[in-house]
Amino acid sequence: ANMTNKNTGLVFNCYSLRRRMKASRVGKFIRPASVVYLGAVLEYLLAEVLELAGNCARDNKRKIIKPRHVMMAVEMDDELKPLFSDVIMPGSGVVPGVHTCLMGKRDQDTFRGWARQGLSKTQVGAKE
User: Fold this and answer.
1) Pair 118, 94: CB distance under 8 Å
2) Model-level pTM greater than 0.85?
C-alpha cells in the first residue's frame, strides 16, 4: 500500500506517522490503512480546532493565532471541550469568569470609593 500524500489526499505525512507509531510500540504490526485512517482523523481535528481558533483571533482583532485563542475556541465548543478536558495548554491563560462562591454580597455601598467609606487615612483631594 502506497502511503504517499498524492495517493491518500492528506496533508499529514503518513510515513512519519507510521514511524512514530512503531516507535511508541502501538502494536506488533502496523497496517498502512490504519496509519492513513489515523492521519485523516488527526488532520480533521486539527482543521476544526484551527478554524475555531482563527475565528476567535479575528473576533479579538488579531491576525496571529496564539495559544490563548486555541484555548478559548476549545472552551467555547461543546464537542471539543470534553476531548481537551485533561489538557494543559502552556501560555493560554485561564477561562474568563468569576466563580459565584467568590462573589461577595452586594449592597448600596459596595462600589463606593475609599474616600466615601472613610477607609483611607487621608481624604482624596484634601491638602495637609
Assistant:
1) no
2) no
What is the spatial distance between Cα 62 and Cα 60, in angstroms, rounded to a whole number?
A: 6
User: Which phi and psi angles does 102 have, rounded to 5°?
Assistant: -90, -10
φ/ψ region of 15 (left if φ > 0, alpha if ψ in -120 to 50, else beta) reads: alpha
CA atoms of 128 and 41, how far apart (whole Å): 71
C-alpha grid cell for residue 7? 495517493
Please write the tens of the pLDDT for every residue from 51-107. Answer: 999 999 999 999 999 999 999 999 999 999 999 989 999 998 887 777 777 777 777
Q: How confident is the model at residue 98, as a pLDDT?
A: 77
C-alpha torsion angle, residues 99, 100, 105, 107 (rounded to 10): 90
